[in-house]
Specification:
23 strands; alpha/beta; binds flavin-adenine dinucleotide; FAD/NAD(P)-binding domain; five-stranded parallel sheet; single chain; 2 domains; binds nicotinamide-adenine-dinucleotide
Amino acid sequence: PGPQLPFDPSKKTLVILGSGWGATSLLKGLDTGDYNTIVVSPKNFFLFTPLLPSVAVGTLNARSILQPTRYLTRHKERQVLVIEAEAKEVDPVNKTVTLSDDSEIQGQISSTTIPYDYLVYAVGAETQTFGIPGVKEHACFMKELHDAEKMQRRFLDCVESAAFPGQSDEEKDRLLHMVVVGGGPTGIELSGELRDFLEEDLKSWYPELASRIRITLVEALPNVLPSFSKELIAYTERTFKESDIEILTKTMVRKVNEKSVVLKGPDGVEREVPCGMVVWAAGNTSRQITRDLMAKLPEDQTNKRGITFDDHLRMKGARDIFAIGDCTTSSYAPTAQVASQQGSYLSRVFKLLAKKDKLEADLSHAETSEGAEKLKRQIDKIKLKPFHYSHQGSLAYIGSDKAIADLPIFGREWTSGGVATFMFWRSAYLSTLFSLRNRSLVAGDWVRVKLWGRDVSRD
Ligand code: FAD
Ligand code: NAD
């Protein structure tokens, strides 16, 4: 059985894979009256990733940064079919997607293949482990909602285990040593959040243990935050030093064990460092489905880092597939800013394509040559502008109520760091949240934490 929706054979079928930044931004701007639209994602919600590290320490409730995809689609002009399933295979020749419901509970049917006229491929990426032993088994990630929830549970478990009567000092120090791997914005923001939790809450909840909690950030490159300006890198390193967060640069994690990490420092010597928790934030890599799709177009898809596309975001080698966001590789950074601009660009592209497709359909039925000429002229007038990315700046939270910002203002780079930037960071993200509901939930959480602190219950 094919998908069910008010199917209109005169309209093309648009299948969107994903419900992240790229897909959601496309859906927001899409005129669903033009297409039979189907959204497929294993998550039936959009996750506001910039605030994920705040969820990991309980500053925000998880639900505050989620938006159900149906919340967006139910207000659309024409019904959109939302399918909670994982796309398993894309066939660019026969133009089909095979999907399956891998969730805990399944009905009699849990797998199907659907045809598409246009496919928007926005499945994002997964965390890169470089095949380093022990990462998958012992480290926490910071990419999905369940990663943040797992980290929160594990962190509090370490603290409670350290509080167990009779624990030796050495074991307490191990359990309370938190290692964050990766000095990109994810690792920096998470370390800052951990520090806030320690200073603002744990010191009063666990006064006998708090002084033993250590946070170490490990970065393979000579400095953290390579995408930020030099002043802000230095400012972050200073702030971390003042906050007692140790930064180990030029240091590679070689192995993660259950109770330790193996580090290779600038001297080339490997040493084993005991720890209670490792958070792995070492960047992105392509998902298996993306690698499989690229392998089907070996002549056009030659860059192993992700899908390459043309000026209109069409996947090279497959004109009817548009690829956006972290599953692609280009001169743009893999950021929410890029993915969401690509998504809104595609919503404009699909408006024009619908117009063009309708004219072409009319042309095939034109009764007079005069009518046909007129339609051809109208079709020729429809020109798709290439995608243009407009960088709005980079922002990151670094803990201690401080944030950093690199902002292009009137063509010049403006850098700023500190408490005022933190207020700007908060207001920028509050206004970027997609709905009023999320805005009020997040603002409410900030007030809750200010008044009563973070919760230390572990479920
Ligand atoms: P995603 O948002 O990851 O969405 C991918 C979607 O595809 C998800 O809904 C997923 O469930 C779905 N999916 C996965 N597999 C399949 C499949 N097989 N079939 C169908 N659907 C599938 N960027 C910024 O610009 N600013 C920030 O402050 C910022 N902070 C961040 C903080 C953190 C902790 C993280 C992890 C990232 C942050 N980023 C930030 C980066 C940003 O989140 C990503 O660049 C962005 O999410 C990319 O959007 P996307 O749509 O390509 O992928
Ligand atoms: P990243 O790729 O930016 O950083 C990962 C870091 O991990 C790199 O600096 C790398 O050198 C280091 N690393 C890799 N392997 C290592 C190892 N074995 N040992 C030690 N260090 C190792 O990853 P990210 O921070 O997750 O960011 C991913 C994308 O999301 C980026 O484009 C980033 O700009 C974006 N993002 C932006 C924000 C923000 O703007 N505030 C926040 C989070 C993420």
